[in-house]
Amino acid sequence: MDLASLITDLQSRGLRIETPVERRSGGAGPSDSGLIWIEGVAATVPTGTSWADASPYVLREEDQGFGIYLDGERLAGATAGQRPRYYNLTTADGVPYWKIALLHLDSLASTVLQTCAYWGNDDQCAFCGIGLSLAAGRTVAKKRPEELAEVAVAARDLDGAVDATLTTGSTAAPDKGALYVGRCGAAVKEAAGLPVEVQFEPHDDLDVVDRVADMGIDSVGIHVESFDPVVLARIAPAKARTGIEGYFAAWERAVARFGEGQVSTYVILGMGEDPDTTVEGCRRAIEIGVYPFVVPLRPIAGSLLEDRLPPQAEYMDGVYRRILPYLQARGIGAAGAAAGCARCQACSALGALERLEAAAPTSVASAGPGSGRRLIPVQVEASA
Question: Is the pLDDT assigned to residue 23 strictly greater than 90?
Fold first, then answer.
């Protein structure tokens, strides 16, 4: 089994852990997941859920690091993320740094506004858990730019953070929160010098995109979530009102300002979407210079989709492999992203497949989950 296929299967079936590792629980982001490097490649893998605890894969502690095993056979070496040192610090107001921003392996991440105009009403996105961590007291509702800058410097200096990814709940303001998350990103970039991605919902006034770009932000995520309009209307009604074409208009403006490969969109699989419609949407996005960050559904306990399971690895693998040639032909990929989810790639196996294809272009296409191929280690730089 090659590395991309292993990560794909792990993200679909989860991982049993025999010793505690750093993980995210609840809320937005890679929730209910262990944070690990598999042969040097960053990955978030579901852990601690009932279905992940039934996984055939197990993470075992070894003399040096960890190993991932299947039926007693060691498949790969792994390094578990440790509790970041900056988590022990607090602001002058007594707020723990970890309530302001978390470290996702080597990427600092924060939801700068932990509230959303759609949460708790008919417009709530079914996959989202933005209000859960706030209700549990694990974060604060609004992070100030100066606080985020302070935490970013500490995360860089103490734990080797290499970029920052800032997202936000949508607001009732005309810009839907884009300008505030942009100001937060600018503060982080000025203080810590890290590449920054900000993520926001598009507005009809596309001048908002220009105003964010003028703040010096490196890349943006404008997330459509699904290219299937039927699925989008069901799982994200407010986004559906913007419409698929509304997202394309926003992406075109963003690519003009941030550059090809510096604009990305989440594409979540496993919500009943039509795969052909999905691949065609990704193709169109890639054609204008947008990176489709394709991920499996990560069911969040407490969300409207908490009872669903992630899609099967074979389905994910098939879609990844249909999209990859369009990325290659367009010349954009994870390696060129300055910051953000497209740079990190831990929640998807698409980046690992890109690396594997680059290393062995004639052999990847035949290697699906469970193909029996020997694991090919892929080394990338990881944080301390």
Answer: no
